Amino acid sequence: MPDDRPDTDAAERRGLSRRAMLSGTAMGAGALALGLLGTPGTASAASLKNGAWRNPALGYFPSGGHFGADRGGVPHAGQDVTNSTGTAVYAAAGGRAYRVGWGVLGGRTGNGIILFHGNSTYTYYGHLSRFRVSEGSRVSAGEWIGDMGTTGNVTGPHLHFETHTGGLNGIVDPVSFMRARGVDLGGGWSSIDPGASGEVVEAIQYLMRYRGTNLVIDGDYGPVSVSAVKSFQSSRGLYADGQVGPKTWPELVATVRSGRNGNHVKAAQTALNIRSAGLLIDGDCGSVTVSAIRSFQDVNRLVVDGVCGPLTWRALVG
């Protein structure tokens, strides 16, 4: 079983500078980005696109905000995602809030949150305007943990997002790290492979029921569900590989709007709950569900119309 206790790594004990922490890591970032969540050495045995990771924020990549960019002689340690102040910031994966506060990983990034995900894997969220979790609390993948802001050294509101493996000194390229786990930090559709599990799989199963199957909603993307998805892909002229990714999602999702009911509504309610909506999964798109859709659209700077269409779906399952 993975150890879920935060490790006190050497970089933190010795108080190494951010410059020293970055030294020597950038060249190996591509290889490390394929690394570790789960038992070390098992990455090749099972896909990392297992439904355990989520996009931490919607926005765009600003010029010069990429991993390794020169910041006054110090390589940039993360990936910036720009949007307006107050945009929701979500936990990239389940774990524990290891540090919450000002300057927890360098004062330049202001208010920040370090999440610990087990197996010496961490994510960091900087420049926040508001915290929505407290230090030591458990968080789930996709949970709303803070708001984008301008604290620290910034020229405008954005999220500074970092990924670390092998301890806090193991800084890796967040774009590559998250892509290997089926997440497009640029805001595209997620990729879910056979063997995945969890709430996103439940949403897929509800959508497949809406499309005419009789799948059990168990959150297990095993052989029965994979076979159903492959049949669906074939029926839509898609490559039948069983991966629910950027080509399959647009065909699979269905518009959810006020007054509708059914399994597609249950899928949307499940996806909204990943993002902290707290809805009853009843398949009824009444006023409560419409309000939750509108709230999600608002805090993610989408068009606020209360209709769960393709753009909202893409943000929900990313």
From TrEMBL:
Pfam families tied to this protein: Peptidase_M23, PG_binding_1
SUPFAM superfamilies: Duplicated hybrid motif (SSF51261), PGBD-like (SSF47090)
One MF term in the entry's GO annotations: metalloendopeptidase activity
Record domain Peptidoglycan binding-like: where: 199-249, 262-316
UniProt name for this protein: Peptidoglycan binding protein
Domain M23ase beta-sheet core: 75-167
Organism: Prauserella isguenensis
PROSITE patterns for this protein: TAT
Ranges annotated as spanning the membrane: none
